[in-house]
């Protein structure tokens, strides 16, 4: 499970989740390993999740609303 964190929080996660998030360049985020305790499977799941992340601009264009509305 991955969630955004408040500015200045840093990466709060354990094991392979923290490693992958830091290597991906995530500055503020929280992660929790649910289910498998296998570090390789967890790392693969985080890589898949990070690859599916979208920018605010992409989401606003897809929904057809201004970016300022997404920030509220």
UniProtKB/TrEMBL annotation:
Pfam families with a match to the protein in the record = Ribosomal_S5_C
Report the residue ranges that make up the Small ribosomal subunit protein uS5 C-terminal domain in this protein.
Answer: 1-63
List, in alphabetical order, the Gene Ontology terms for molecular function in this entry: structural constituent of ribosome
Organism domain of life: Eukaryota
- InterPro entries attached here? Ribosomal_Su5_D2-typ_SF, Ribosomal_uS5_C, Ribsml_uS5_D2-typ_fold_subgr
Q: List the GO cellular component terms.
A: cytoplasm; ribonucleoprotein complex; ribosome
Residues spanning the signal sequence: none
What does the entry give for GO biological process? translation
Q: Does the keyword Iron apply?
A: no
Q: State the UniProt keywords alphabetically.
A: Ribonucleoprotein, Ribosomal protein
Q: Which family does this protein fall into?
A: Belongs to the universal ribosomal protein uS5 family.
Q: What is this protein called?
A: Small ribosomal subunit protein uS5 C-terminal domain-containing protein
The organism named in the record is Ceratopteris richardii
Lineage summary? Eukaryota, Viridiplantae, Streptophyta, Embryophyta, Tracheophyta
């Amino acid at each position: 499970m991955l969630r955004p964190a408040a500015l200045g929080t840093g990466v709060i996660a354990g094991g392979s989740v923290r490693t992958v998030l830091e290597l991906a360049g995530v500055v503020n985020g929280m992660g929790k390993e649910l289910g498998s305790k296998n570090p390789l499977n967890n790392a693969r799941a985080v890589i898949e999740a990070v690859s599916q992340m979208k920018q605010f601009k992409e989401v606003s264009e897809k929904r057809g609303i201004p970016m300022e509305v997404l920030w509220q």
